[in-house]
Amino acid sequence: MEWNKTYHRRKICIIFFSVVLMSMVLCGRLVYLMLFEGKYYETQAKDLQQRERKIKAARGKILDRNGVVLADNKSVCTISVIHNQIKEPEAVIAMLVKELGIPEEKVRKRVEKYSSLEKIKSNVDKETGNRILAYGYAGVKVDEDYKRNYPYDTLASKVLGFTGGDNQGIIGLESVYDKYLEGTDGLILTTTDARGVEVDNIGEERKEPVAGNNLRTSLDANIQMFAMQAANKAYIQKEADSVSIIVMNPSDGAVMAMVDYPEFHLNEPFQLIEEYKEYEGTKKEQEYCNRMWRNQCINDTYEPGSTFKVITAAAALEEGVVSLEDRFHCPGYIVVEDRRIRCHKTTGHGAESFVEGIENSCNPVFINVGLRIGADHFYDYFEQFGLLHKTGIDLPGEASTIMHKREKIGLVELATISFGQSFQITPIQLATTVSSIINGGNRVTPHVGMQVENGDKKVIKTFDFPAQEGICREETSEKMRFLLEKVVSEGGGNKAYIEGYEIGGKTATSQTLPRSAHKYISSFLGFAPADDPKVLVLVIIRNPSGIYYGGTIAAPVAKEIFENILPYLELEQ
Amino acid sequence: MPKRRRGEKKTTYFDYNLLFIIIFLLCFGLVMLYSSSSYTSANKYGDSAHYLKLQARNIAIGLVFMFYFAKKDYHVWRKFGRLAYWGALGFCFVVLAKVPGLTRSSHGQSRWIQVGPIGFQPSELAKIAIIIYLAMLIERIPKQLDKVSSMAKVGIRLVPLVLFVAVNNLSTAIIILGIAVCMLFVASPKYKEFFVVAVLGVLFIFAFINIASYRSDRVEAWKHPETAGDKGYQTMQALYAIGSGKLFGKGLGQSLQKLGNVPEAQNDMIFSIICEELGLFGAVCVILLFVLMLWRMMVIANNAKDLYGALLVTGIMSHIAIQVVLNIAVVTNTIPNTGVILPFISYGGTSLVFLMAEMGLALSVSKGIRLDTIE
Q1: Which of A89, A121, A493, B261 has its CA 20 to 30 A from that of B282?
Q2: Which residue range or ranges hold the Penicillin-binding protein dimerisation domain (chain A) (predicted)?
């Protein structure tokens, strides 16, 4: 049967051309997917096809002001296994047990676990890593890694801080300057199939790690060591709970040493120190770890006691309510409202000038002066001297000042504030405020970090710690330096006197709360040279046994430090 | 223009162009099949040529069928129209009833007839059956197709088979419907009605997609494959492969997505591996090759000696066209995911053998063309 109906043919053509049209649409879709979206899908696909292994970046070093290395890295290895690539599981298990000294069942569990990359052990030393590599078993990976290493172990442990398993800083400078120190991890990208098995003959892609930058600090390893030795000695001799020492430059707030003895071992930061050993393995272990890491120079407040008279005196001079020649009389006590507040010398100092009053650390004199200033104005000086705010030191966890509310300060409170009681500040706050008063009136920001350098010692960033000028007059500052020099040369601070040096200072003995426990904190704050302070030392001995007077036990510690560091700093006699 | 070869004695024609395209596609298919399956089959069966060997066997069987159908005068099949229809219906019923000992399941759906070593998918048989049956039916009543009622009568006869197939293989049912609509469209002088049917068909598909719950998941996976989790996994992997291809591809054998990421890359999703390895250039070439094949079929259909032959080729042509378009649309996530293979290239025995039988049929029709009538 013949057929030649044209419409049949036309319709066949219509079918064909609509298919052509659809093909063109699909081609358009392909162009869109492959050319315009190609980059996106390709990246996604790569993500899926490649297994990443991190190459840890070397963490930057922490250096002291002279470039002495306080924290660096040790090359170690991380051993891991890739389940799918292990060909001789028994041999691998036996080898790992032998080389790493891990119990067999533990290794077996990890080797037999179905995962793309299972870590067996990290921080394996390099020789062991090389030996494991030499066996040449398939599926065993040895990755080079770094472990933080602190050459001096306990030195400045609470200031430096340590790092955790992922190389992240946990406390101290390691945590504050983490972003400069950490560097950028590199990657090894290996192409794998859907099961995670590496595909042969496709090379690895490497992204090289970028080492972290070095942090140069204002610490001086030698001064820190002198201070730690002095603290250690006092700690043992006085059977104290702890000894804190801050050495700083009063003119710019740079901390040269900060000791909070007992220090802990930075290379084993999770091992309790000898003093706390009894809590190891108990529920309190973590609590004592935290206590061990606590930097009491910054994290804890205390009643400063008589060292605070420096600030009372400065406020009074600034206010103009007292002159150096003013005469006072101390009968051994003073009555404020209904309270009778005793002087530490119960028989009384008798008639004395203001200069003698500060030499004697006479409470009635300072209460008298404090009352002259008045509660409201005294509170203003707290504000003006910066005592109500944190110092802003570049270490974590600084505690705030614990102070009365302005409207709650009555005469009794005012009297106790005048000789440094009934409120609390941190040691660093005291050191910073006194520094600011004696340096001419510039409220400095205490700091440890100075600058960030790269591996070639090129400075990348210099930290700026602003100072607030004019918190007191230069004249007041000068008088304070004179007064405090007198305290050491003729007054209660004479145990810190060093022949040939002009040292200023003030002692303190404060009772901790509750008063009934009869626990004391002895302290001494000194600086040298008295007329142009270059170094300030604060010594705090907590709960010493036996004699607890600051002038008797804390001042000699400071003296010992001065004897060591003044020649070291080449400060002239 | 009559073609003249070797003097002017030879008056019959044979479409060598089509034969060449078929052979080329088969060979290309084998290469791509080996490329996409060798890695996974080496892991699974310890033999990288596992699928290659099976497909080569399928092609060998298919070639036998193709040459048999090509040699045979296609008019013979007129007598087998009804038999093919009822046969397909019967097999589909067997599968549907899951007659023990005769059926087997694969991928969670029972789609196979299995008798001893011989197994095949009756839904594939249904496609060729519907072509033979409809060609016979329409050829008998060409004049009546002017009327909508008689077209409907023809259509009604298809309903049982389409439904039987649709129960566990929606995509094949859609293909069968598509083939039937194309053949009726060619046979009938009407236009408007078909336009209405097309619109209704589209609406029906949308409705069906939204009603059947497991297919709605597919719709979700189609719209947002990245967030659809497991449902969108295959689609995403295919898109990754396609996107990685760029203009000229990674080179033959260089696909990474075939390493188990695109599940069973040698099956429905083989086009994505073609894209990854041969790039946009290769993918468009493959599409062009199919368009070329369809063009040859159009030429054969337009010059067929009789309406029966023209209808057979129209059916075959629409079959291939629908499968190619659907497959590529699925792989590029242009439409929701549904299992349609890429003719001649994807792995699969039944479909290949029946496809090659259809090719034989088309060649047989081309043989009937008288050279002096070619336009």
Answers
A1: B261
A2: 54-201
Nearest to B186 among A11, A44, A48 (CB): A11
Query: Are A205 and A146 within one domain?
Result: yes
User: Quick one: A178 and A279 in the same domain?
Assistant: no
Interface-testing mutation among B138, B240, B295, B318, with chain A (most A C-beta atoms within 10 A): B240
Residues B28-49: what's their mean pLDDT? Answer: 90
3-state secondary structure of A530: coil
Chain A residue numbers touching B261 (CB-CB < 8 A): 45, 48-49, 193-194
Same domain, A77 and A129: yes
At A481-492, the pLDDT tens digits run: 999 999 999 888
Please check whether residues A196 and A78 belong to one and the same domain: yes
Q: Do B259 and A49 touch (CB under 8 A)?
A: yes
Domain carrying residue A192: 52-217
Residues A202 and A283 in one domain: no
Asked, for residue A224, whether it belongs to a domain, the answer is no
**Confidence (pTM):** 0.64
With a CB cutoff of 8 Å and minimum separation 6, the contacts of A260 are A158, A242, A243, A244, A294, A295, A296, A297
Q: What is the DSSP string of B71-137?
A: HS-GGGGGGGHHHHHHHHHHHHHHHHHT-TTTEEEETTEEEEEEETTEEE-HHHHHHHHHHHHHHHH
Please write the tens of the pLDDT for every residue from A193-252.
Answer: 777 777 766 667 788 888 899 999 999 999 999 999 999 999 999 999 999 999 999 999
Q: Which residue among the candidates A80, A157, A306, A510 is catalytic per the annotation?
A: A306
**Residue B128 structure tokens:** 């060729």
Which residues of A fall within a CB distance of 8 Å from B287? 23, 26-27
Q: Over 70: is that where the pLDDT of B231 sits?
A: yes
Under the banding of pLDDT at 50, 70 and 90, the label for residue B7 is: very low
pLDDT digits (tens, 9 = 90+) for A361-418: 999 999 999 999 999 999 999 999 999 999 999 999 999 999 999 888 899 999 999 9
Whether B290 has its CB under 8 Å from any CB of chain A: the answer is: yes
pLDDT attached to residue B373 = 61
Whether residue B294 lies within 8 A of chain A, CB to CB, comes out as yes
Nearest to A27 among B39, B287, B295 (CB): B287
Residue A306 among the catalytic residues: yes
pLDDT lower than 50: segments of chain A: 1
Q: Within a domain: residue A223?
A: no
SS3 content of chain B, % helix, strand, coil (to 5): 70, 5, 25
Nearest CA in chain A to B248: A34
